[in-house]
Amino acid sequence: MKKTLVYTAIFTLLIVWSCKDKFLEFNPPSNQFTDVTFFKTAEQFNSFIIGTYTELLRFSDWTQMMGYISQEARPKSTIPMELTAYMVPTQGTIRNYWQSMYMIGSRTNTLLAKLEEAPATLSETDRAKIEGESKFLRGFAYFNIARAFGNAPLLLETYSISQTTVGCIPEDQIWDQVITDLTTASQSLPTRAEWGDANYGRATKGAALAFLANAYMYKKDWAAAAKASEDLIAMNNYKLAVTPRAAFSEALTPENTGESIFEVQYRDGGFEWSNQVQTGSLIGAFTAPDGISGDYAPFGGWGEMVLGQDLRNSMDPLDERRSLIVREGETYKGERMSEPVILGTTFKLTQKNVDFSTKYWLGKSGDVDGSNVPLMRYAEFLLNYAEILFEQGKTTEAYAQLNAVRSRAKLPNLVVSSDREIFMRALMNERRWELNTEPNMWFYYTRTGRLKDLKDGQGQPYDPKYNKLPIPQSERDQNPNLCQNEGY
């Protein structure tokens, strides 16, 4: 009965705030929980926080989108996405990205407001956890809003009708708030060990520090970024997995690899905190070859997110990260496969002249489908730290971080160079080889001004307007005071 009541409360309250986020009114039935009766115990706050995490489950779609707009990934037709048609204010995935981030922000505003009103019986330990997790999620939401859209609304209060006409503020001010929230989160959140195995995947002190360092990179505050990075390293909680493939393994637990800093929890049915289980993602089906059969891929494979061959062709033949990319004629055995599949022999491929990422395609479905999507892992953190150190003039130390990631891939060390262009090209190559088909790669191009290095599907240089996504037209239709990014 207790579990049923908690579920009912979560469902009711999330509908209330989901509707408020869309500027609609909702009057819940009188026999269900509302915010007046609900936020009284740590368990109730915890339940609402867990419900907030559900918005992260869309990251498999966003990962697909980021691959498309970088032209690294191809849709099912294998033809590069026509960016002039995709990067438009009416594009559905971009709209979902915007709405989900503001949904997280709205729910965490509610959590923080209710925390101020919580009974004195709520312990200081519980208050710190609730505040830390709420501010991490809000900081993470606006982190994504700022880097994707730039100037945008910043909402820090619970919903009111005035929010339907709020305008945009400068991106730099949003970054200030992100840093404020993530700083508090880094001081309040438990470590992964303190959360315990039952809560693996929830926001941690390390996750807050990793994203805090990244936020400071947008502000070009390299000293503060270095301090956050060094605080994370000093925790001694993280390390590179033994091989590139092990970083995406289900057979090796995250505790063994230590590479996971923050992931969307799809694996094994999603998060199971407080017995609340979410269903898996479709990213395994997206990245498996189209129609390869249910013996080898979830739902038989859909091939909705395949790779052009330029990526693997650019990699050193000795680079072990090439093992995460397979193509026709090669043999692959995912962890969920009882026997290997030879692409194009065991099963005829319908998609030609493309590659397939095996980061998430591990084989057929188990009880549920879906591999976790990493939102920050230690290899990515080290590449960020390398950039931070270089910007501080610590060239040798910067290359040491870069070479640590290369060494895991069985590549020789790069020669240290103080030339910024040489370093940045080397760093961006490592990011591309390490982070392809992960959701953050696109934003490294935009933050560092490297879109000029990319070509669109027609071989033309990227339009500078793509440094920011278009603000969804559906949102601007509701709010005439919303801005729009230049060129859209």
TrEMBL record:
Region (Disordered): 454-488
Compositionally biased tracts (Polar residues): 479-488
Keyword Membrane attached: yes
Subcellular compartments: Cell outer membrane
Keywords, alphabetical: Cell outer membrane, Membrane, Signal
Domain RagB/SusD: 349-488
Any single Gene Ontology cellular-component annotation: cell outer membrane
One matching Pfam family: SusD_RagB
Residues in SusD-like N-terminal domain copies: 22-216
Family from the record: Belongs to the SusD family.
Name assigned to this protein: RagB/SusD family nutrient uptake outer membrane protein
Lineage of origin: Bacteria, Pseudomonadati, Bacteroidota, Cytophagia, Cytophagales
